Amino acid sequence: MSFRTIEWRDDTVIMIDQTRLPGEEVYNTYSDFKSVADAIRGMIIRGAPAIGVAAAMGVALGAREIIADTHESFFRQLENVCDVLARTRPTAVNLFWGIERMKRVAEQNRDKNLDKIREILKKEAIRIEQEDLTICRNIGKWGATLIPEGATVLTHCNAGGLATAGYGTALGVIRAAHEAGKKIQVFADETRPWLQGARLTAWELLKDGIPTTLISDNMAGFFMSKGEITCCVVGADRIAANGDTANKIGTYSVAVLAKENNIPFYVAAPVSTLDLTLADGSKIPIEERPGIEVTHIKGIAIAPEGVNVRNPAFDVTPARFITAIITENGIVKDDYRAGLRKVAGK
Ligand code: MRU
Description:
Order of helices and strands: EEEHHHHHEHEHEHEEEHEEHEEEEEH
Bound molecules: 5-S-methyl-1-O-phosphono-5-thio-D-ribulose
Oligomer: single chain
Number of domains: 2
């Protein structure tokens, strides 16, 4: 891939600015944890695994910023750093997973001196980023086995290299099938209101030379009913113990349409997206974002001033609509409760 989503360089965090794609490929540099939190909230970086990496790097930056004479003071301030990062976006569980992993590593090394702990946290954040790349490749390997030769694959939102440390989850499956020599093509839903499909998925797939057709969200059913879609592959922000899956708003509609048209509907996600503490999807917190994202496109009003707006950023697809969940540790289908525990090593 010819871009880096996020990296730790010279004790700063570099991120590609996803609000400016596809028009401009700009890389921002962050040297304090609060600006990393703002970047997550402001969608400079987005996508569940990518915000997990960003939060971990934010914790590592925060640890460097802390001025403390004692371990008590350091750990108290580190807790505050973690709280600020945790309050950025509520739905993708990877954010909390990344922060918890950093906290755990800090605690495990409490006996070391503070500079050593800061160094360990930096290394852990870099490790999380590197592991994510390997995880996506493995999701790709498993998922590619489900994609037939000549398939047209519909995807929603962006679950690509931009949403991860690189390669992607849903787009990792597509990339792996393409790399295996299968002649496939992609239909990308534009994904209103943020247009992750139009701006990001189309951008990164075209860069890789994968044939891609952009459609607006309300066209998916038309192409399915015409027999033009072979299967759907999407990412996930949080998967409950029974397989119910939160993903970008509109995913649920795609899944229902797929079932109606007898089209397989696959979810691709790392084990860090599983939240086995939730029995089902009803308790997954759904982020509601500002109405201006619906009423305006690039600052231009497309609705009358004063209209009421709702803007949930995610919806939950019940497990019964999901043909299989593809993880780095294998493919789960049918009995999600048992299968998800198994791939999670629990
Ligand atoms: O609001 P976003 O752009 O962060 O939402 C992203 C999605 O819903 C993705 O499909 C999901 O995070 C999976 S990314 C591999």
